[in-house]
Design goal:
The protein is mainly α. It contains seven helices and no strands. Helix 1 runs antiparallel to helix 3, helix 1 crosses helix 4 and helix 3 crosses helix 5. The mean pLDDT is 92.
Length: 168
Amino acid sequence: MALAAASALANTYLPVKAITEKIGVPGPAAGMALFGGLTFVFWVALAHQLTGKRYSAIATAVLVASFCLLIRPWYGVLEPAWFSLYAIAALFASGAIVELAAFRSSVTTVLGGGLGNLACLLITCLAIGLHTGSWVPAAAAPLLAVAALLSGVVGAWLARRAKPFSAG
């Protein structure tokens, strides 16, 4: 729970949107693409790394979404009222991919973080596009996809580096 709370607070209070706007990265969800590895994947992968328990990445990811939603609606979208369920779906998908890839090897663990962040980004961007009409510009989509993959890889790699500090 503590790691999920840290993730939600990082997601809420780091000036991610201001940074992406300042450097000219178009959204929606540009912050997730660039920083999702640190705000989401790292904490989810670290929870799994530290506990070594099945489903810990999934449980942590769902808790992250829940804590984020206690703070504010997912991307500020209020209509439809159930839009925030996409946050749970996106982070569940990310946690499930991290979970499936974890502990197989260093490469699959790190790649799982990248794919997890990419899945989270895709679900979120599709949800925002379908319900608000705000789509990622076609020219920026490949850049955001690569950024999401790399960001997730970095987050999972950092969590993997925590192994010497884990109890297991």
